[in-house]
Amino acid sequence: MKTYTHILFDLDHTLWDFEKNSEETLYTLYEQFELAKHGKFTCDSFYRKYKFVNTRLWDLYNKGKITQQELRKSRFVKTLTGLGLAEHEVPEGISEAYISLCPTKTAVFPYTYDVLEYLQPKYGLHIITNGFKEVQQVKMGAALLHNYFKEVVTSECCGFKKPDQRMFRHLLDRVNVRPEECLMIGDNYECDIEGARNAGIDQVYFNPERNKARKKPKPTYEISCLSELKQIL
Length: 233
Known about the structure:
This protein is an alpha/beta fold. It folds into two domains: 6-17 and 108-232, HAD superfamily/HAD-like (Rossmann fold, 3-Layer(aba) Sandwich), CATH 3.40.50.1000; 18-103, Putative phosphatase, domain 2 (DNA polymerase, domain 1, Orthogonal Bundle). Helix content is 45%, strand content 12%. The protein is built from ten helices and six strands; from the N terminus they run E-H-H-H-H-H-E-H-E-H-H-E-H-E-E-H. It has helices at residues 18-32, 43-62, 68-82, 94-101, 112-119, 133-142, 155-158, 165-175, 189-198, 229-232, and strands at 6-9, 124-129, 151-154, 182-186, 202-206, 221-223. Helix 1 packs across helix 2 and helix 2 runs antiparallel to helix 3 (68-82). The radius of gyration is 18 Å and the shape is elongated. The protein starts with 5 loop residues before the first strand and ends with a helix.
């Protein structure tokens, strides 16, 4: 089995449970901004629509087609107008409230701490994320993840976004390590798996939903639970 010295983790959807934390936040905002008074949609509908819109906007952001500001400005407008509100009815400050509250949520995927405790004495652990710097720092602090990781590289701090191999090379240069000594773990096939492969780094595709879509070429490894990393490392 290949010997690695450094492990690179994505953060959202891999360690920090974005869906669970976002859902909890959106339910709070539904009450806080009294969205029920419009009588046009339920809290569940609000969550599902936001998830649909946000996923597509993040895809555009990752591909460099929209900016951070455009993503943040448009996702609640698109969500709420898509649910029947007029644009002038979209509550002022709801986007800022989401950005403030969501990163303070603490849900992580099962076995996150157990696996990090297992890995930390053996490997250099690092985060590589397209998420925004100030938000990711709050998430890691709230979820007590900071102490496990030596380097945290965001797309903002290096000027590139996954899957651009230059983002991976930026982290490798900071750590002074060769690609073949590293293993990347992430949930996004294009950003994490293809990006790492193009940078010469082996990959672990984290697929908790057990999505059966065929991925070509196959990742080096595929897991559905973080605990499976102990079988690899």
